[in-house]
Design goal:
Blueprint (H helix, E strand, L loop, with lengths): L1 H14 L2 E6 L4 H6 L2 E3 L1 H10 L4 E5 L2 H10 L4 E3 L15 H10 L4 E5 L4 H4 L4 E3 L4 H7 L4 E5 L2 H8 L5 E4 L5 H4 L3 H10 L4 E4 L5 H6 L2 E2 L2 H10 L4 E5 L3 H9 L4 E4 L13 H10 L8 H18 L1
Parallel strand pairs: 1-2, 1-3, 3-4, 5-6, 5-7, 7-8, 9-10, 9-11, 11-12
Helix pairs in contact: 1-14, 3-4, 4-15
The protein binds 1,3-dihydroxyacetonephosphate.
1,3-dihydroxyacetonephosphate binds next to loops.
């Protein structure tokens, strides 16, 4: 059954001139069928530069929206329209505007895990891979950072700027099970614990490094350590095992994102056949959001 679906997807992909992008949190069979697997920043770079006329985005809605913002002339498909992000949904334009009124001299740096209309009201976007660089390059010593409070706190500890942090969080990372991380560390005392900055500060204190998903991949590649405990969404363990078959990985903290698992092979094939559901934004919102996303890409490419 799976083989039939896979060959159907490959045929449809050629017929529709499509490229399949998948985030590292996607289920194994989706990572395997994708043309590119990456972190939020890498996938947006590919979305901006691909020559294919259709982008099938296997991730969550804000990621597909970012692809559309960067490549409006392409058809961007999100095979499961309900693959949302509760972190992105915890911020809305009126509330951000109230915070901006409170701090009129601050520039807003917005994590890409946010809705497009909120991006449109921000100075610049960032991902976990470039948040510090974007904050440091913004021409103000006062910043509003939204919506992830853990990433905001992580950045504020490395910056001399005054950073006003929005009180939002990723439901999966914010409730990381620290007891589970500790138990894994006891089981594997030679292993290193890598955690995502969306986890709470108490997890960073246990960890050997705090990194976005792309940073984790580079860190393992440069390290001589054999075993790693991965404190981010469990899909990342599959990605790392595939990239580094000579190393050993396990999950830490029981971090699972239900929305990242909503995309299936069947939905990809239906989406390619019917060329829907298409991500669309009101052109004015898209243009304003583009300015914020473009400022991010100016800083780190
Ligand atoms: P990365 O930018 O590290 O891929 O993280 C994306 C994300 O949504 C984390 O929850």
């Amino acid at each position: 059954m799976q083989n039939k679906q896979i060959s159907e997807i490959r045929n449809l992909k050629d017929e529709q001139d499509a490229v399949i992008l998948a985030h590292s949190y996607q289920p194994p069979e989706i990572q395997d069928i994708a043309d590119h697997v990456g972190d939020s920043l890498e996938l947006s770079r590919i979305a901006a530069s691909t020559e294919s006329s259709v982008i099938v985005f296997c991730g969550v809605k804000f990621m597909a929206e970012t692809a559309h913002i960067l490549s409006p002339e392409k058809t961007v498909l999100l095979p499961e329209p309900d693959a949302g992000c509760p972190l992105a949904d915890c911020i809305e334009v009126p509330a951000l505007k109230s915070m901006q009124e409170l701090y009129p001299d601050a520039l807003t740096v917005l994590y890409v895990n946010s809705p497009a209309d909120v991006k449109a009201e921000s100075y610049a976007c960032c991902t976990s891979a470039n948040a510090l660089a974007v904050v440091e390059s913004a021409p103000s010593d006062e910043i509003i950072f939204a919506p992830d409070r853990n990433l905001g706190t992580f950045i504020s500890r490395q910056s001399d700027k005054t950073i006003h942090i929005w009180n939002g969080a990723c439901r999966s990372h914010a409730i990381a099970d620290l007891q589970d991380m500790k138990a894994r560390m006891e089981e594997w005392p030679d292993a290193e614990l890598l955690v995502h900055p969306e986890t709470p500060p108490a997890a960073w204190e246990l960890a050997h490094a705090v990194l976005g998903t792309g940073g984790m991949i580079r860190y393992v590649g440069e390290s001589s350590v054999e075993r790693f405990i991965i404190g981010t969404e469990e899909g990342m363990v599959y990605r790392l095992r595939k990239l580094y078959p000579d190393r050993v990985f396990t999950t830490g903290g029981n971090i699972y994102c239900i929305n990242m698992k909503k995309i299936t092979l069947q939905k990809i094939s239906d989406s390619l056949r019917e060329l829907k559901p298409v991500i669309e934004l009101d052109p004015r919102t898209r243009e304003k959001a583009f300015a914020a996303v473009a400022r991010m890409t100016e800083v780190t490419g």
